[in-house]
Amino acid sequence: MSENLFSVFTAAAPADRAKPFIHRPDGSVITYRDMEEDTARIANILSAMGLSPGDRVAVQVDKSAEVLLVYLACLRLGAVYIPFNAAYTIAELRYLLADAEPKLFICRPERFRESVELTHELGLAHIRTLGVARDGTLLGKLGDAKTSFTDHSCAGDDLAAILYTSGTTGRSKGAMLSHDNLASNARTLKDFWRFTSEDRLLHALPIFHTHGLFVATNIALMAGAAMLLLPAFDVGEIIRLLPRATVMMGVPTFYTRLLAQADFTAETAKNIRLFISGSAPLAATTHREFSARTGHAILERYGMTETNMNTSNPYEGERIAGSVGKPLPGIDIRIADPASGEEVAAGDVGQIEIKGPNVFKGYWRSPEKTAAEFRSDGFFMSGDLGFQDDKGYVHIVGRNKDLIISGGFNVYPAEVEGVIEEIEGVAQCAVIGAPHADFGEAVIAVVVPKPGVMLSEDGIARATSERLANYKRPKRIVIASELPLNAMGKVQKNILREQHRTAFQ
User: Fold this and answer.
1) Using the 8-state DSSP alphabet, how is residue 243 labeled?
2) Closest to 431 (Cα-Cα) out of 158, 418, 422, 408
3) Under 8 Å between Cβ of 183 and 156
4) For 230-262, what is each residue's pLDDT tens digit?
5) Which domains are assigned to the chain?
6) Could you tell me the pTM of the whole model?
7) CB of 271 within 8 A of CB of 244?
8) Is the distance from CB of 118 to CB of 97 less than 8 angstroms?
9) CB of 44 within 8 A of CB of 145?
10) What DSSP assignment string belongs to 395-420?
11) Which whole number is the average pLDDT over 299-324?
12) Please, what's the largest Cα pairwise distance for the chain?
């Protein structure tokens, strides 16, 4: 029996294939029947180009329903799908394409000239274009292609996709994800978050990232649900569409921007059964303010490129602000000493380590790096630091690389950020360490005020002095208009560290 992920989706699809799968921004609809026929057409187009199971297809285009169909067609063919951030420059693409060596590269029509030069330079076999209105060379003969295709029969361990990590601490690495990695996580989340074919997911996330592609899209397909697809986050469009949706997935920035709108009310959100947040830490203040405004407790969960989702706050039960919940069914989580791998005592901080069917196969063409990231008993070392409380909820305190050691004491940025974000008028805060002659490292807090609010460094310093031990208090406070964020709303602390590395010199 084939374990092809598309076959799994087909088995879960609604009996009535006329049911909507995607509602486009222009009001048009792709039904489940349309999806099956169009993905067969695209799979036939790819096959006619000479692509075979195992060949890699790299994609750097703007978000659209069509690129999701390309992803699904690759699954049907048994090809390996590789999405790239649409913001990557040609210089960044050169490295990624040279590393991935795809047989086909799909780019935006307006970027064809520079991209074709790059593909010729690298000796890649094919390049095609895809625009947001079904324009471009890839789908030019879509109407002539057959609407049936025999899906590749594959094992669950076969490679389905490669997702490149963000590369904030060096070169991006390609995380290899199998059909079973993706299927197992989608099944678990569908059940845990109670998705059904009656759900309508409001989808404003990027689809080059695990959150928008493998969490949002795969769960919708696993449940036979519909998606309201937006090209990007637009707060006005979100508010307009919320009454038509039942679930919304977002990053913390989505929720802070909604809260900044006076017309975002409990009435606006009354049809939503579940708000989910991930990809970056959700401030406890945002969690509480959202609950007070709407009556909804945002469900925060924890995942990463290499594993998809690992933990979640409960669907029913207490959703704890500042926690990412408990391990998902079938997934083992332990908190261990980063050096020895020994489990630490309950409540102590250690590295989060993960084992389960969701954990990736390894890094593309990097066996040494792969071996270095796994314990001998198969646990993947996440690089995230956290602890489990007495109820079993996981709390993340930061990345291992973000740990600040000041005067010999460990400072966990998340703790300091949480204290500062409690101060009235603070919208965001990022805490980093910088070299210091006396302490080795000293704490710097970069603070963004809420619109129209004037914050003072002295006022923030006084507030932190009442709640933090001296070694945890920021030695410097910087008031900034914004923080450097990646496409998923995660603070790029490597940029901040570079900007402020000479602060105490």
Assistant:
1) G
2) 418
3) yes
4) 999 999 999 999 999 999 999 998 999 999 999
5) 5-21+32-184 (3.40.50.12780), 233-399 (3.40.50.12780), 403-499 (3.30.300.30)
6) 0.90
7) yes
8) yes
9) yes
10) EEEEEGGG-EEETTEEE-HHHHHHHH
11) 96
12) 72
